[in-house]
């Protein structure tokens, strides 16, 4: 919903969009001025920086294990102390409730004839006693629920303790899930960026922008069928408005490309983009992988039940992404990008276009922005979802236009303004309605406690179920 928390999520998403736009502006400058066309080499420092989260993760895991062991020992001690007293309370309460005849035998209680079925007529003293019995029964039910909750927590702690020896990275860092999950994440995240960067070599910016926007439907489809999210018609309206804004911006770029084509010969254009179909395919794969990567990331950082806490979930996600992606980057750079690295090193000596200080400054700025982007993404996906994250990143192109206005004094084109309004409006519409994440949590909570609520208070349970059903009648 669009409240204080919704406004925070929107502003947080725009901060992420601005940070990543600044990062790729620096990368574009490195590619054009310094001939840095090795995508895995350029992003390797970012993943290496993320791998340093292994130190706080290792320390947090050790503290968590010590805490779980101490808590388990304390619970065993408390359980041994309570074993002698806890079983007596339900038994006494049951005897008091199941033996109404004993009420009339108390001193000072008028004795009345007892019907053949064993029932007695009620007196004010008996009504008071029955009220106390009902209150005692309610307290016993409350205690039973608390004990059930404690048992669930104990079982969860035991599962977390067993998980310490089940999954790990090289036997050093305990993991909450198999390492294969993080391998898939690292490959999807790395090659989403690599494919998009490679696509710029073979096709136009317009085609890459179209394919890159596929991250939104990719994340929606995967969230629907894997995470079980349900999207309302309002969500589809917001996404549609954003996509129309994107295509307006792309149409403007396309018109500029057509205008340029009339100024050059056709064979020169063919020489500039000799493998346009390959570039479109790479852009398509990059857009789909961006949606897959963001959805997997959301699942990992939000799975607090498996990880133990939000902090450990974030640390484990960032650590394993950094370590595994760094290994892939180093390997690919060594075997596939040696020639490009040599060209880049030779271009550094050209003081006019690419000095050493300029390279270090741009590369450090790019790495710092990407590092902040990954850390912020992990936190953003814990308070929001992958689809809204991709919608928020759509404004990155407009931040790049802002850079051009202030740095190069270039006025934006006519379609820039309606595109910007559509994207901002679609993002606000998407966030104003009930979040698919909140709706899913409400739905799961209702399923988890529906049976108990129906037994305790059927009227309240029916009201909650009807309210939930009416709230999601148009969800798909």
TrEMBL record:
Topology relative to the membrane: Multi-pass membrane protein
A Pfam family: SLC35F
Compartments, record wording: Membrane
Lineage top rank: taxon: Eukaryota
Feature: compositional bias, Low complexity: 125-136
Record's keyword terms, sorted: Membrane, Transmembrane, Transmembrane helix, Transport
Keyword Transmembrane helix: yes
Keyword 4Fe-4S: no
Basic and acidic residues composition bias: residue spans: 142-157, 442-452
TM segment ranges: 7-30, 36-59, 179-200, 206-227, 234-251, 277-296, 317-336, 360-381, 388-406
A GO molecular-function descriptor: transmembrane transporter activity
GO cellular component: membrane
Chain residue ranges for the region called Disordered: 71-90, 101-157, 442-463
Membership in a protein family: Belongs to the SLC35F solute transporter family.
Protein name per the record: EamA domain-containing protein
Lineage: Eukaryota, Sar, Stramenopiles, Ochrophyta, Bacillariophyta
């Amino acid at each position: 919903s669009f409240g204080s928390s919704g406004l925070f999520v929107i502003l947080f998403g725009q901060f992420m969009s601005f940070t990543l736009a600044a990062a790729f502006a620096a990368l574009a400058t490195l590619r054009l001025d310094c001939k840095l066309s090795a995508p895995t080499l350029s992003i390797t420092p970012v993943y290496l920086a993320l791998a340093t989260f292994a130190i706080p993760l290792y320390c947090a895991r050790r503290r968590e294990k010590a805490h779980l062991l101490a808590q388990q020992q304390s619970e065993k001690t408390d359980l041994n102390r309570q074993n002698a007293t806890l079983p007596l309370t339900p038994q006494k309460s049951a005897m008091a409730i199941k033996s109404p005849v004993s009420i009339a035998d108390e001193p000072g209680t008028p004795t009345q004839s007892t019907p053949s079925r064993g029932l007695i007529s009620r007196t004010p003293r008996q009504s008071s006693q029955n009220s106390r019995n009902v209150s005692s029964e309610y307290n016993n039910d409350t205690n039973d629920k608390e004990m059930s909750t404690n048992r669930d927590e104990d079982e969860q702690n035991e599962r977390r303790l067993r998980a310490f020896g089940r999954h790990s990275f090289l036997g050093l860092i305990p993991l909450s899930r198999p390492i294969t999950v993080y391998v898939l994440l690292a490959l999807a995240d790395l090659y989403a960026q690599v494919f998009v960067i490679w696509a710029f070599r073979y096709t136009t910016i317009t085609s890459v922008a179209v394919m890159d926007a596929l991250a939104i439907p990719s994340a929606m489809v995967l969230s629907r069928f894997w995470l079980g999210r349900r999207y309302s018609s309002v969500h589809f309206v917001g996404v549609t408005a954003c996509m129309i804004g994107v295509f307006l911006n792309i149409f403007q770029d396309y018109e500029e490309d057509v205008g340029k084509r009339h100024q050059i010969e056709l064979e020169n254009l063919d020489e500039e983009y000799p493998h346009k179909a390959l570039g479109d395919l790479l852009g398509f794969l990059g857009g789909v992988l961006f949606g897959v990567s963001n959805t997997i990331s959301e699942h990992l950082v939000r799975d607090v039940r498996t990880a133990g806490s939000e902090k450990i979930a974030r640390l484990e996600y960032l650590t394993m992404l950094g370590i595994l992606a760094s290994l892939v980057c180093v390997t690919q750079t060594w075997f596939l990008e040696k020639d490009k690295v040599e060209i880049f090193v030779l271009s550094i000596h050209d003081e006019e276009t690419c000095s050493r200080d300029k390279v270090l400054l741009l590369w450090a700025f790019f790495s710092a922005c990407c590092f902040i982007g990954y850390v912020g993404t992990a936190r953003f996906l814990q308070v929001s979802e992958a689809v809204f994250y991709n919608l928020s990143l759509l404004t990155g192109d407009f931040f790049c236009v802002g850079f051009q206005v202030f740095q190069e004094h270039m006025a934006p084109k006519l379609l820039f303004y309606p595109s910007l309004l559509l994207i901002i409006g679609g993002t606000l519409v998407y966030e104003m309605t009930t979040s698919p994440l909140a709706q899913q949590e409400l739905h799961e909570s209702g399923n988890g406690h529906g049976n108990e609520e129906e037994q305790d208070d059927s009227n309240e349970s029916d009201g909650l179920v009807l309210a939930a059903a009416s709230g999601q009648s148009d969800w798909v």
